[in-house]
Design brief:
Length: 306
């Protein structure tokens, strides 16, 4: 099978997984109150849906579901955990776009939530999505045992919190003035971007009741592709245009923010991406052909054009 055929097969799988999680999110984020809720304010829900149901690739949900499939996990449980993770990811984007953070006007080719609505609506939409994610995992409708749910909630809180994504965002804002070195950039990116991708792969192992060793292997795979994701993103910030990306490009350079691309150049970055794909494939080797789609995911991340 040629590389282009593999890419096509992966893209089909990604579209299928995206459609599944999109349908579930559309249902979960409707205006209809759920059991125990008093009301769902329509304007808040409209802002939430604008921030979530806006055409994202849904790569993180795919990583949850495909990692879970390696261990024969229940498909619906994996899908609900994937939807929870996408709520956290979407919340982070809504808040990152705010004027106090990255101050972006476009996200996925559409106005950001604070531009479409207002800053208060964006803050509340993000807050709602973050808390709803944990409700989804804990819900009786997510058919997992209590031990697995506690492990998922703990791992997601760690990945999203002060030692993970939000801590990474704080470092990212600080980097505009501090000009971190290579070690500092890697730490920042592992937290801001890599932590949720690492969780996605580890979560699949938790849902599938994998062994501790298998769970760690999947987490390490997630770390490798998380680094690759950010490297590819920084590369695209230099080489792509806003139409291709669906958001502003060249912002890191304009802000004087150091990245590994700015430190070492485009060719070095591409070599690192090749090495990270190889590392990801080695980590998946024990799973044989069952991990073929996850290997394709690593290549897709490293070679993506948007």
């Amino acid at each position: 099978m040629t590389t282009s055929q593999k890419v096509t097969m992966f893209q089909i799988a990604l579209q299928q997984r995206a459609a599944s999680v999109e349908a579930l999110l559309a249902d979960l984020l409707s205006d209809m109150p759920r059991n125990g809720e008093i009301s769902r304010p329509p304007r808040l829900m409209a802002a939430i849906r604008h921030g979530v149901l806006n055409g994202g690739k849904r790569l993180r949900p795919l990583l949850v579901m495909e990692s879970a499939a390696l261990f024969g996990a229940d498909n619906l449980a994996a899908l609900r955990v994937a939807a929870a993770l996408e709520c956290v990811h979407s919340y982070s984007l809504v808040h990152d776009d705010l004027p106090a953070m990255d101050d972006d006007d476009l996200r996925r080719g559409q106005p950001t939530v604070h531009r479409k609505f207002d800053e208060a609506a964006a803050i509340l939409a993000g807050d709602s999505l973050l808390t709803y994610a944990f409700e989804l995992i804990a819900s009786e409708e997510t058919e997992l045992d209590a031990q697995a749910k506690v492990a998922l909630i703990s791992a997601l809180a760690r990945a999203a919190g002060l030692g993970g994504m939000t801590g990474g965002q704080a470092l990212d804002l600080q980097a505009e003035n501090d000009n971190p070195d290579e070690e500092g950039i890697i730490r920042l990116q592992a937290m801001k971007t890599g932590a949720l991708i690492r969780f996605a792969c580890e979560a699949g192992a938790i849902v599938g009741h994998a062994t501790a060793g298998e769970r760690e292997r999947m987490a390490e795979y997630g770390s490798a592709i998380g680094i690759a994701y950010q490297l590819a993103d920084d590369l695209l910030d230099v080489t792509a245009n806003a139409t291709e990306m669906g958001k502003a490009t060249g912002k890191d350079a304009a802000a004087g923010k150091a990245t590994l691309v700015s430190l070492y150049g485009v060719e070095w970055t591409r070599q690192q991406l090749t090495g990270l794909v190889g590392q990801a494939e080695e980590l998946l080797a024990p799973f044989g052909s069952d991990a073929a789609l996850l290997k394709d995911a690593a290549r897709f991340i490293a070679e993506r054009q948007s």
